[in-house]
Amino acid sequence: MNNNIILVTIYVVIFVILMIVIGKGMHKDQKMKPKYDERQMAIRGRGYMFAFYTIIATTCLMPLILTDSMRAFLGDTIFLIPLFVGLPVHVMYCVWNNAYIELNLNAKAWIGYMIFIGAFNIGIGIWAVCDGRMIQDGVLQVNIANLYLGIMLVIIIIEILIKNAIDGKEEDDDEESEA
Description:
The chain is mainly alpha-helical and 179 residues long. It is 75% helix and 2% strand. The mean pLDDT is 89.
C-alpha cells in the first residue's frame, strides 16, 4: 500500500512540474498568468453567466426528461451531464466573441498541445470502448469523460480555425473596400 502512495505522489509531482513547464512555454512572456483586455474579460464573464444558467437549467430539466432506465444506464455519469452541456456554452461563446485565446498565448503551440491532449483522450476513450470498460453491467462508466473531453477539444480547435478563417476573410473584405 505504501508503494502505491509513493508512486502516485511521484506521478503527481512529475505531472505538476510538466504542466508548469508546458504552461510557461505556451505563453509569449514565459509567465503562466493569462492576460486579457477589458473587452475579453467582460465577454468571458458573460460566457460564465450563460454557462452557469445552462448548468442550472440542465440540472432542473434532467429529472423531467430522463426515464428510470436512462438514469440506471447513466449511473454516476449523470452528474457529469450539466458540465457536459455548460462547458461548451462558455467556450463557444468566448471563441465566437474573440475572448477565448489569451493575449500573451502562443496560439500555434497551444493548438498543437490541445490537438495532442484531444487525440490522447479520444484514444483513451476508444481503448475503454474496445476493452469493454465504457459500459459495465449495463451502466455507463466515467471513462466517457475522456471521450467527451477529446471530442470537445477537437470541436473547439475546429471552431477556432473556422472563426480565424471568417475573421481573416472579413479583414480581406475590409481591405478591399478601403482600396
